[in-house]
Specification:
The protein has seven helices and twelve strands. It has 272 residues and is an alpha+beta fold. A hairpin with a 2-residue loop joins strand 2 and strand 3 (59-64). The model has no long low-confidence stretch (mean pLDDT 97). Bound molecules: zinc ion (ZN).
């Protein structure tokens, strides 16, 4: 699914490719992912320009010139891209832009959304209010990470990394890769981690983000860049979705277990 790296790519690309473009017309084919009726949504965005793009965790925020913001949660299977010509049947929600191109939003399943919110009130929305610290924010320090571990000692480390109310942005694939890089078993309880292990996990978070950025993000399911191109990081996973295949470090077959109901992949030899 799109996780923090992919949404950050969309944020940056929106900043480059969408800013200043005006919405001629909105297309709404899937009203139930909106927070209002399709007619009202279309009326409110018509004529507005994109003026800024922001992100918190896995949620993308596109600010408009009329003091509204389009707030998008792609969930597992959502995507967003710009196409030269609009095919109105192919979108869940789309924006026909002044230069003739079209911003497509599609693939969003139940639980995901496209909301139109007052820009000044975006962070008061329940979906954003409940998020913990953003994993790419400068305030996310080793000290802060250690505090989160100390306050959640009984929880498993994989669960903590994925809990959006504690740390926003990391999902199933990235947490597997992070814990492999750190050499820590995903089912270890936070209270059992040494200071050195916690530091290794903290560093591994940014190492994995960087590696993914290098390959243009992860497109296992739905994510594409704004130009429609896929990322390649899924082809470079070391453990995620690699059950039974050799660990790239030691050759031991990768194990699959469940951690809090989520499929979790790790090397039983490299991860302690
Ligand atoms: Zn190994």
């Amino acid at each position: 699914m799109p996780e923090i790296v992919e949404i950050e790519i969309l944020r940056k690309e929106s900043q480059q490719l969408l800013l200043g473009k005006q919405i001629e017309e909105a297309i709404v084919n899937k009203e139930n992912i909106l927070n209002m009726g399709g007619g009202e949504f279309s009326r409110l965005v018509k004529g507005a320009k994109f003026v800024n793009s922001r992100r918190k965790g896995k949620i993308l925020i596109l600010d408009l010139s009329n003091d509204f913001s389009v707030v998008i949660h792609f969930l597992l299977t959502g995507f967003m891209k710009i196409v030269d010509q609009c095919d109105k049947n192919k979108v869940q929600v789309g924006f026909l832009l002044s230069d003739g191109s079209c911003l497509y939003i599609g693939g969003i399943m139940r639980g995901g959304f496209v909301k139109l919110l007052k820009t000044s009130k975006v962070f008061e929305d329940e979906s954003l209010k409940k998020l913990g610290i953003d994993a790419m924010s400068l305030d996310f320090t080793l000290e802060k990470f250690n505090r989160i571990l100390a306050e959640n000692g009984k929880k498993k480390i994989k669960q903590i990394l994925m809990d959006q109310s504690l740390i926003a942005g990391i999902g199933n694939a990235y947490s597997d890769e992070i814990l492999f890089v750190a050499g820590v078993r995903p089912d270890r309880k936070a209270a059992t981690l040494t200071g050195e292990e916690a530091e290794r996990i903290f560093k591994a978070i940014f190492e994995v983000f960087k590696e993914s950025e290098k390959f243009g993000g992860e497109s296992e399911l739905s994510f594409v860049h704004l130009n429609g191109k896929k990322g390649e990081f899924q082809n470079h996973f070391k453990v995620h979705k690699r059950e039974g295949r050799p660990c790239p470090r030691c050759g031991t077959p990768i194990h699959l277990i469940k951690v809090n109901g989520r499929s979790t992949y790790y090397c039983p030899n490299c991860q302690k």
